[in-house]
Design goal:
The protein is an alpha+beta fold and about 475 residues long. Bound molecules: iron/sulfur cluster (SF4). GO terms for molecular function: 4 iron, 4 sulfur cluster binding; amidophosphoribosyltransferase activity; magnesium ion binding.
Length: about 475
């Protein structure tokens, strides 16, 4: 199914898009404002998904859920949040596919099974969900969505283990792929990360409440303190007795999605002890060390290119200028992926400042190129504004392979770097030269403690093999 193209409020088109953000909170106070706090957490995670939002709350043993299509601010108002006070809550924001069952795919997913009530919010993609779903359907299971999350819920419900934690453990041991999830049971919360640790998940604390979130920026908004990241292959259980954890899988090589550092995560988030903005700045500095181009100005593509452009300017000594203005009031628009409309959308969103650019040799910095549509339009605008030369510099290596672990990349034939050489891409986008950060330089720019990285979309080295027909490798 082709995916609609979203225009993120912060980034631009022609980016890989995050699939989801998850949040969970457990309070020892049975009437705490967990609904409001989850709302704030989801608001901070909005960049991870703008298609739908949902919150499920445990109110004295009764689960109450509200979810709908749209941004967090559109889905919830004060009246709805007033009804979502309780002792625990989980929430979810989703970047979704097109199709007729969009609301059915909104999360959290709430099920009532022989082990009690269970709500699940999940970020990531399973690579064996089609296979498991096929087997479950053959055994009589009925699915209401296309969510991988529902596969997990069915596995828990059908598990021969009576205890819900054991059933959950048993279920997670059967699934393969990327998952960072938060679940709510009658007693508390469960948080778990896949054995490879593809997607982020952190634990925080505010007063007596424990919080779990995709990114630490969700803690800051409520003055919560970061405790630590959930470890790959770890299950964390939070209830009235406190917090405990164990590993549900044998140790695997840590393959954290490096694109979280390049583009997806919010710059104020901390992953593995590393601030994301500072990592991006270091990528810009490294890019400057790897490039030999003389220029008058360094200009970021607004939003996504700023931290790397700052680092590039620091290292190279070439002045940094905001030579392209972003219209802040475009909002979010879903568009069909036709070439003409893509071009128009970029022009609505961005405008070069002629007085800064005219007669200058400029280096434009962005974090990545997926199809090349945005870069081409930006360069065309900057040249029309009178730039003498335009050199494009990208703070990541060429994206040559699609992602199967939860990110919306194009199919391989749509990735410009999968089809063209760097010189050909430069010609296609109209740049006088094009430079990418090396993979080694990228890895050296990040200082997350004890982290290993997935770089599959750059080198095609997939750590978990894909092959159930769900994905099309070509
Ligand atoms: S393939 Fe790329 S986008 Fe996907 S998880 Fe790996 S690094 Fe991230």
């Amino acid at each position: 199914m082709e995916r609609e193209y979203s225009f993120q409020s912060e980034g631009l088109m022609d980016k890989m898009e995050e699939e989801c953000g998850v949040f969970g909170i457990f309070s020892s106070d049975k009437k705490s404002n967990v609904g409001h706090l989850t709302y704030l957490g989801l608001h901070a995670l909005q960049h991870r998904g703008q298609e739908s939002a949902g919150i499920c709350v445990n109110i004295d043993g009764n689960f109450k859920i509200h979810k709908d299509m749209g941004l967090v601010t559109n889905v919830f108002d004060e009246e709805k949040l007033q009804e979502l006070n309780g002792e625990a809550a989980i929430g979810h924001v989703r970047y979704s596919t097109t199709g007729s069952s969009l609301l059915a795919n909104a999360q959290p997913l709430l099920v009532n099974c022989n082990k009690g009530d269970l709500a699940i919010a999940h970020n990531g993609n399973l690579v064996n969900s089609s296979e498991i779903r096929f087997n479950l359907e053959n055994q009589g299971s009925i699915f209401h969505s296309t969510l991988d999350t529902e596969v997990i819920a069915h596995l828990v419900a059908r598990s021969f283990k009576d205890d819900i934690i054991e059933a959950f453990t048993h279920s997670l041991q059967q699934i393969k792929g990327a998952f960072s999830l938060v679940a709510m049971t009658d007693d508390g919360l469960i948080a778990a990360r896949d054995p490879y640790g593809f997607r982020p998940l952190s634990i925080g604390k505010s007063g007596d409440s424990y919080i779990v979130a995709s990114e630490t920026c969700a803690f800051d908004i409520m003055d919560a303190e970061l405790i630590r990241d959930v470890q790959p292959g770890e299950m964390v259980i939070i209830n009235k007795d406190g917090i405990e954890s164990f590993h549900f899988s044998e140790e695997k090589p840590h393959t954290f999605c490096i694109f979280e550092f390049i583009y997806f995560a919010r710059p104020d988030s901390i992953i593995g002890g590393q601030n994301v903005h500072l990592a991006r700045r270091a990528m810009g500095r490294q890019l400057a060390r790897e490039m030999e181009v003389e220029a008058d100005l360094v200009i970021p593509v607004p939003g996504s290119g700023i931290p790397a452009a700052l680092g590039f300017a620091e290292e190279s000594g070439i002045p940094y200028q905001k030579g392209i203005l972003r219209n802040r009031y475009v909002g979010r628009t879903f568009i069909q992926p036709t070439q003409e409309i893509r071009d128009l959308k970029v022009r609505i969103k961005l405008n070069p400042i002629k007085e800064i650019i005219k007669d200058k040799k400029v280096i434009i910095i962005d974090d990545s190129i997926v199809r090349g549509t945005t870069s081409r339009q930006v360069i065309r605008m900057v040249k029309k504004a009178g730039a003498k030369e335009v050199h494009m510099a990208i703070s990541s290596p060429p994206v040559t392979y699609p992602c199967y672990y939860g990110l919306d990349t194009s199919r391989r034939q749509e990735l410009i770097a999968a089809k063209k050489s760097i010189e050909e891409i430069a010609g296609h986008i109209g740049a006088d030269s094009l430079h990418y950060l090396s993979q080694e330089g990228l890895l050296n720019s990040i200082n997350a403690e004890d982290y290993g990285y997935c770089t599959s979309c750059f080198d095609g080295d997939y750590h978990i093999k894909v092959g159930t027909g769900k994905f099309d490798l070509e």
